[in-house]
Amino acid sequence: SQTIHQWPATLVQPVGSPLSLECTVEGTSNPNLYWYRQAAGRGLQLLFYSVGIGQISSEVPQNLSASRPQDRQFILSSKKLLLSDSGFYLCAWGGTSGRTGELFFGEGSRLTVL
Amino acid sequence: GEDVEQSLFLSVREGDSSVINCTYTDSSSTYLYWYKQEPGAGLQLLTYIFSNMDMKQDQRLTVLLNKKDKHLSLRIADTQTGDSAIYFCAGPYGQNFVFGPGTRLSVLP
Q1: What's the alpha-carbon Rg for chain B, to the nearest Å?
Q2: A104 touches B35 (CB < 8 A)
Q3: Which residue does chain B place closest to A45, by CA atoms?
Q4: Pseudo-torsion of CA B26, B28, B30, B35, nearest 10°?
Q5: Going by C-beta distance under 8 Å and a sequence separation of 6 or more, which residues neighbour residue A61?
Q6: Fewest CB within 10 A of the end CB: N or C in chain B?
Q7: Which residues of chain B are within 8 Å of residue A108 when distances are taken between CB atoms?
Q8: What is the dihedral of CA A99, B31, B3, A86, to 10 degrees?
């Protein structure tokens, strides 16, 4: 069966520090991978998605970047965090069932920037 | 404006039925989805419906689709305290899809 792992689960970082959130998927090949951000009590904002190794589409210009060094690994990074980067970050995979929009989410990473 | 809209809050009493509504603008023939998010967790796919169907039932969940009005609803029968969560609908947006803002369902004892 397929699983998705996301870490760290919780992170408290000072303004200006770097960030690295990692997501890996097991049990499937060539998935589409997604990073979403959810501000407190708000909806989902799509940050990046990837349809293959090294292929990254950015939906919102901002302080963050994403990379996909391996088929089932997706990394969200920042060189210098801003206060506004605080939020709940969700990784997801999909695209193998033929049903666009069917996603499977990780448990999320809560980032607090102080 | 929003491509997928939902009311933000809904409160029901335990044992009653809950109806969560969603409207969308894209008329592509595709799947529409309902996701559930419990506090502090990721989203969990609840159910989906293809746009050529008007109803789908799965145990306590009933999905109704009015394609003419571009209106999707999720009915939860015999709502329980464990159903308290945020419910997101997701619909087509060009070649991709977009999530609604989520409806926070509170179940009162």
Answers
A1: 13
A2: no
A3: B99
A4: 0
A5: none
A6: N
A7: 40-42
A8: -40
Closest of A10, A12, A20 to residue A78, by C-alpha: A20
Q: What is the pLDDT along chain B (109 residues), one digit of tens a residue?
A: 458 899 999 999 999 999 999 998 877 778 899 999 999 899 999 999 998 899 999 999 999 999 999 999 999 999 999 999 999 999 877 777 889 999 999 999 8
Residue B104, amino acid: R
Q: Does A58 touch chain B (CB under 8 A)?
A: no
Over 90: is that where the pLDDT of A41 sits? no
**CA B86 and chain centroid, separation:** 9
Q: Average pLDDT for residues A20-26, to the nearest whole number?
A: 97
Task: Give the Cα separation of B32 and B4 in Å (integer).
Answer: 11
